[in-house]
Design brief:
By secondary structure, the chain is of the alpha/beta class. It is built from 12 helices and 7 strands. The chain has a 7-stranded parallel β-sheet with strand order 1-7-6-5-4-3-2. β2 (about 80), α3 and β3 (about 105) form a beta-alpha-beta unit.
Length: about 300
Amino acid sequence: MKVSWQGVIPAVTTNFNSDYSVDYSFFADHLNRMVSAGATGIVPLGSLGEGATLSFDEKVRLMEIAVKTVGDRVPVIPGIAALSTAEAVRLSRAAEASGCSGLMVLPPYVYSTDWREMKAHVAAIIGATKLPTMLYNNPPAYKTDFLAEHIAELAAEYSNLEAVKESSADVRRVASIRAVVGDRLNILVGVDDAIVEGIMAGANGWIAGLVNAFPVESVEIFNQALAVRDHNGDRASLEKLYYWFLPLLRMDNGPKFVQLIKLAQETVGNGCARVRPPRLELTGAELDEAAQTLTHALENRPVLAGLK
């Protein structure tokens, strides 16, 4: 299936059973919920999907289930990350063999260095298959920053590099990338609480996190922001929804974003808060603060079409 790199594309979580094995049945049901709410693609195995704690075989099975479950309706675009370049290349080829439509290419786990080495790593993955790829730039998490000139260099050399997931949290990056590549690449927002600003700067897609718990609201805010940018939307309506959603969207930031988003899923009855160690579930003041934020949001939840 052709990837448009536009719209709301959930970076889906991976739920676990009580023994920390992957709950594959829930995973399939969850994908259906996301697509039914209006998701235009699915990204499994990303940071939010706890890809670093998944074995190679678990990753392959999740990709296969995703393709079988929703691959005829939306593109499946797994995150490709590993400790070594060889393992990442192997995973990218497994994704192609599984029938995935594209790849989200990450820097290597743990090791961060200069552009020469980082380019060699991501280039090996991009060039390993014929699948269209999206480069994932997240310097706060991976300590590797793909600057606009780096991205332009890759785009000039690899025709199957089609998009960038920009998660630096600096919305000025959208304009800086556009300045050097024009319309050559699609730009997607990768930080939830910058979605409106990112769209206004020119992004056309969102690799979203809180969508796992609030899919209807996520699709609605994206569509409203796009309409306002294109001068046929209601800014007051957008601001009202955004200001309600912002405390939740901010959960997508920081080292415990996985715990926070999974807690949100459990709170709305769509998943559980369980995470794989070394992550641990929230406790104490962190849990109390998050629970208060969720309670307040749910008590003031806007009435939108599609919500029961």
